[in-house]
Design goal:
Layout: E1 2-7, H1 13-23, E2 28-31, H2 37-47, H3 53-77, E3 82-85, H4 88-98, H5 107-116, E4 124-129, H6 132-139, H7 148-164, E5 169-173, H8 178-193
Parallel strand pairs: 1-3, 1-4, 2-3, 4-5
Bound molecules: thymidine-5'-diphosphate.
The site of thymidine-5'-diphosphate has 13 residues, from α4.
């Protein structure tokens, strides 16, 4: 089973992902961007304010393709529980926002389309829901993806994804304390894997 964690920067996703290591010691924990050289290229694009948004989309997507073939598909073939901190929905939400003023007419649909051809959709996605102002303040707004106005667009895209597939998503209120968020995610996960 493939479970993904999604949310804005500063939603506490990575803290939750760390905490889950104790409750699911046998699961395969992974994340996007990965630590491969593709992931390193992605990190360069994240830090570069001049990076072309369409080129950045393809770097993230290349990293995803490598992540799938090297980590996710082999683990699923072995019947492992895979828990990924960010996955395809991050592209649908973030890069669709980066490309909202581009030559693409429907960026979110376009990005989903690229993935449909080769990706493995998550079985379930836990969405840590936080408002863009809290997200930007918590993340320190150190790069272009962490500004409140941009995160507002990203959040609207996540809402569109949830509307399209409500059965795949579990929404958790991430404005609560970290302990309460971890509890809520653990309860959600117990139900999903039972
Ligand atoms: P991440 O490493 O999850 O950041 P953090 O741990 O600081 O939350 O992701 C780095 C940034 O990349 C984050 O701002 C979200 C963005 N991102 C995308 O824009 N598209 C993607 O497909 C992914 C995986 C991340």
């Amino acid at each position: 089973m493939l479970v993904t964690l999604e949310g804005l920067d500063g939603s506490g996703k990575s803290t939750v992902w760390e905490a889950l290591h104790d409750s699911y010691p046998d699961a395969v924990f992974t994340h996007e961007p990965t630590e491969s050289w593709y992931g390193e290229a992605v990190n360069r694009a994240i830090e570069d304010d001049e990076a072309d948004p369409l080129a950045t989309l393809f770097l993230f997507t290349a990293d995803h393709a490598d992540h799938l073939s090297r980590v996710v598909r082999p683990a699923l073939a072995d019947d492992e529980l895979v828990i990924s901190d960010r996955y395809s929905d991050s592209r649908f939400a973030y890069q669709a926002a980066s490309l909202s003023d581009s030559e693409l007419t429907r960026p979110l649909e376009y990005i989903r389309g690229i993935h449909t051809a080769f990706s493995r959709p998550p079985d379930a996605t836990i969405y840590l829901d936080v408002d863009p102002e809290t997200a930007a303040a918590r993340s320190g707004a150190t790069n272009k993806f962490e500004q409140a106005s941009y995160l507002a667009e990203v959040r609207a895209n996540y809402e569109r994804l949830i509307d399209a597939e409500p059965e795949r998503f579990v929404r958790v209120d991430a404005t609560q304390s970290p302990e309460a968020v971890i509890d809520a995610v653990e309860t959600a996960l117990e139900r999903l894997v039972e």
